[in-house]
Amino acid sequence: MKCAAVLLLVCVGFVVSQPQPQAVKEQPKDQKATQQKEAPQTAQAPKPVSEPSKEQKDQKKDEKKDVKKEQPQAKDSAANFQAECLAQSKAKQDLVAKAKMGEFKEDAALKNHMYCMAQKIGFMDNKGEILKEKLKEKSKALIGDQAAASKLVDACAQKRKDGPDTAFHTIKCFYEKSTPKHVVIV
């Protein structure tokens, strides 16, 4: 995994995301046909890419459906949690997006959003207490190293004046101390 990869703690499990390869720009069919006619045919010339058959397209659709079936509902739950917490906290989406990239603004609505997400994910309770053992389990599953996960939780999971403030500073600390890969819990 590359150093710039961003890791997301989501719902019951963890989702690891890596930078996506950039898509190759496809030429219009008319341009392809013109280029194929103009290009001299040699033994070394690459064969033009043909359109996938109907059978291949159907197979790809089936594969996509199978992948969706295999994935746990964590992504759906996380999206639902995100929507619920945004509505409940009245946090601005741009502040949430910036927090995911490491820019944490001291904002009451953003803190409330993070507290809501921490409760939904399951590492904080409704009294503002951090459930350290659950956070260690989730961190170990993500990091793959019990000692490193424990060290991160011990350093970051510190009680503050209230639940939203505790969630905000815990999440910010996780992002900052989990380098070179950043753990994002927003």
Task: Give a structural overview.
There is one protein chain. This protein has 186 residues and is mainly alpha-helical. Helix content is 55%, strand content 6%. The protein is built from eight helices and three strands. It has helices spanning 29-38, 54-70, 74-89, 93-100, 108-121, 132-143, 146-156, 163-177, and strands at 6-9, 14-17, 182-184. A three-stranded mixed β-sheet has the order 2-1-3. α7 (146-156) packs across α8. Keywords: Glycoprotein, Secreted, Signal.
Topology diagram in text:
Elements lengths: L5 E4 L4 E4 L11 H10 L15 H17 L3 H16 L3 H8 L7 H14 L10 H12 L2 H11 L6 H15 L4 E3 L2
Parallel strand pairs: 1-3
Antiparallel strand pairs: 1-2
Brief overview, please?
By secondary structure, this protein is mainly alpha-helical. The protein contains eight helices and three strands, in the order E-E-H-H-H-H-H-H-H-H-E.
The beta-strand count equals 3
What CATH calls the topology of the domain at 75-184 is Recoverin, domain 1
Oligomer: single chain
Question: What is the level 1 CATH name of the domain at 75-184?
Answer: Mainly Alpha
Largest β sheet strand count, sense and barrel closure = 3 strands, mixed
Taken from the alpha-carbon principal axes, the silhouette is: globular
Number of helices: 8
Report the radius of gyration as a whole number of Å: 23 Å
Task: Using the 3D structure, state the CATH architecture of the domain at 75-184.
Answer: Orthogonal Bundle
The proportion of residues forming helix, as a percent range, comes to 55-70%
CATH superfamily caption of the domain at 75-184: Pheromone/general odorant binding protein domain
Global mean pLDDT: 73
How much of the polypeptide forms β-strand, as a percent range?
A: 5-15%
Q: Which class do the helix and strand fractions yield?
A: mainly alpha
Main β-sheet, spatial strand arrangement: 2-1-3
Low-confidence blocks of residues: 1-28, 32-36, 65-72
Distance between the termini: 22 Å
Helix/strand order, N-terminal first? EEHHHHHHHHE
